[in-house]
Amino acid sequence: MSSTESDDESEQSMTSHQYSTRPDWADVVPIEQDDGPNAVVQIAYSDKFREVFNYIRACMHANEMSERALELTKDACYLNPANYTVWCYRRKLLYHLNCDLNEEIAFVGNMIRNNPKNYQVWEHRRIIVERLSHPSNELAFLAEVIRSDSKNYHAWQYRQWLLKTYGLWADELMYVEHLLQEDVRNNSAWNQRYFVISHTTGFKDDIIERELDFVLKSIEFNPDNESAWNYLRGIARFRSTNLTDQRLWKFCQNLYENKYLKDDFNCQQWRFLFAYMIELLADDDRADKQEENKRMITDLCERLATKIDPIRKKYWQYIQQQHSTQ
């Protein structure tokens, strides 16, 4: 099937495949599904579904390696794209018949567009790309899928496999920055940024400072973005978070004093700032600051519990109690 064929065209093509009336399938005795005498849950298969899978069971039982069997697997994949056994059989046929696997990439591309969160379809594509031994236009295809759903786990998992396997790192950080410009709350893009750096430059001192510049600027612009705060946590663990290292604490203090104290409208947007300040205070191991830090944690927890994040009141009361007893 070409990459431009529509679902309707595919459906019409399948409708014409009444295998029981076709002379070229007259030699095949279909094998019906055996659910036993007392099926717990009787599934109401359509007549089309039942026929296609009766015939594919017969072909698989006979280990038939033919063009007609390959076409039959296409119908079966359309009817149930999650059937892993059918995809395995289809690959055997493709390899045995020495088919053009670039055409298969086009076919499975359409399947992914219509079933973007189906693991078996993505796995089939991965195996075919491995068989071809080159990634071709995979990144462009993935960008198309991610445009439709920027948080598609399967697409991101596949993209990470592709980058690692074929070393396609050159423009990935730029791609991620583009996604974050479009949606700064895209947690998948933040995760991908961390992934790319981990597998390329690593978190050396200059990279850490660059990433802190990047994420702190993002947080300052949008302090209610949990994804950015989580990225900050991931970066900060590579450097000292003790309050003797003033950069992160000063950043939080500036947000608190210059923005939070002047915010009369949306207290809730500061819940991540307060939570991170509590973490920094709790991690400060300077003995002469312990009592002062406890008082600040108590104050922050009380504000979270009563004004900023009251839906988690009991949680913040628990955090306050934990630190007050240490």
Automatic annotation (TrEMBL):
PROSITE patterns: PFTA. Its cofactor is Mg(2+). InterPro entries: Prenyl_trans_a (IPR002088). Residues 1-21 are annotated as: Disordered. The keyword Transcription does not apply. GO terms for molecular function: CAAX-protein geranylgeranyltransferase activity; protein farnesyltransferase activity. This is Protein farnesyltransferase/geranylgeranyltransferase type-1 subunit alpha. It comes from Adineta ricciae (Rotifer).
